[in-house]
Amino acid sequence: MPATTIHFVRHGEVYNPGHVIYERLPGYHLSHRGERMVRATARFIAENPALNTLEAVYSSPLDRTRETAGIIVEALDRVRRARGQKPLTVRYDDRLLEAGNEFRGRRIGRGKGALWHPENLKLVSDLFRPSWGESYREIADRVGDFVRDQVAGHPDSQILVVTHESPIWTYRHLLETGRPEHNMLLRKTALASITSITIDDRDGQVLGITYADPALRV
């Protein structure tokens, strides 16, 4: 049965001493711990025969995802060189961007960045349908469009995708429940974790979803 598996990797921890909601802002890079987290995940991928035979690698174009993808590809290329294979090239796709958020640039949970600040109550009255930025439906649609392109362009293969918590969980929730809306406080997408989704190339049906957290103890 021909099937394509998309391995969604969330980026590692970000250096953010000011506790700013950085969203799509430039200049937010992996912390030292974030780099260690990604290296743990990179080793997990490179040493796993079910993961290290990738056809392509894609990433969100933001700093933290670029850095995460670079560390993983570096580990994978060591394996590929030993096999006599060509190195991988990271491709960037805006459909993998973090969700748009009107709170960007504010401090998390403080002042006007607090979800429960009087000015923000109208935005967070329903956590399942947040109105502070891009809707869950829009997020799921763009990720789904990306996935369909990969299934059509790389049938019966393994694809690695480095992106963010919201796109990963929103798309997974849509596949599992039929709706993208969810409570963001209940997501299961740890930093540097891997969510693997296998899709039947013939009819687009989901054959399986698995989850791994190689950086859990970093």
From TrEMBL:
Alphabetic keyword roster: Hydrolase
GO molecular function, one term: hydrolase activity
Top-level taxon in the UniProt lineage: Bacteria
Pfam family, one: His_Phos_1
Keyword Hydrolase: yes
SMART domains: PGAM
E.C. code: 3.1.3.-
Cross-referenced InterPro entries: His_Pase_superF_clade-1 (IPR013078), His_PPase_superfam (IPR029033), PGM_Phosphatase (IPR050275)
This protein's record includes keyword Hydrolase: yes
Name of the featured protein: Histidine phosphatase family protein
The species this protein was found in: Bifidobacterium favimelis
